[in-house]
Amino acid sequence: MLADMFAIVIGLWHMQRIRSFDIAKGIAILAVILGHSAIESNLCIPHRAAQVAISFCFSFHMPLFFILAGYFMHPERAFRWVKESRQLLCTYAVTTLCVLVGVTCMATLHHESRALALQTWGMTALYGNGDVSNLTLWPVGFRIGAIWFLLAMFWARLLLHFFAKLPHTVFWVAACFVFGYISSRYVCLPWSVQSGMCAVAFLYLGYLAKKYDVLGRVKRIPYIWVAALLIWIIDVVSFGGMSMAMNDYGLHPVLAVVGSMAGTLCVIGVSQLLDHMFLGGGAQ
Q1: What is the pLDDT of residues 50-61, one digit of tens each?
Q2: What is the count of structural domains for the chain?
């Protein structure tokens, strides 16, 4: 898990630095770790506290990464194939190589078949799926873990660059989300393509937030914080599941999306407060 989070941080490293955003991403990384730990804990010993932790963490953590990434995007410019491939696809490849080395070592220590371990995990790495599914094009025994994010980010950024050059961009972004969401009910495509198709909506939200100075508006109208907090609480209380890795937005998909936006805004607000209280505010 920590190795996966390291890969995510490296994948986001190229973004401009705003200290409160860095704090927000740190909170989201902790939420990813806590959320997955709570899942494992709840499987062993079901407990209300673990269920609350799952609802809280999964309600915002991955959308926050995509929204903040979109905040720094310039989709009207040409897509930088070399840079994006190096920072996202190459990071994925290097991380999966480390995974393959690790499983080979573990197979050796446990006197198991190294060839079988390499074959199984090699197919998992090739498919690039964030979770196990029975809808894959060919049998995949394991999930590659959190680094599905790198593949999804690549596709989402590529798609947003394409849609931004079309008229009625918001329509194409919404259609892409719907197609990715519905198609994943019938087939799970490799390389986290469908996750990227849905993630493009969150990138676009981040881009619009920067374009229309949403954070500035919120500062001028502080009641928006209260509204966002209430929406987020409703989302957490009504949580019916959410996994961007599997395009699962639970029993209330609209509330899940809106709630993740509200949760992201609240986490950014908390991060700005922490920055002001302990680090003196400002950007780096």
Answers
A1: 889 889 999 999
A2: 1
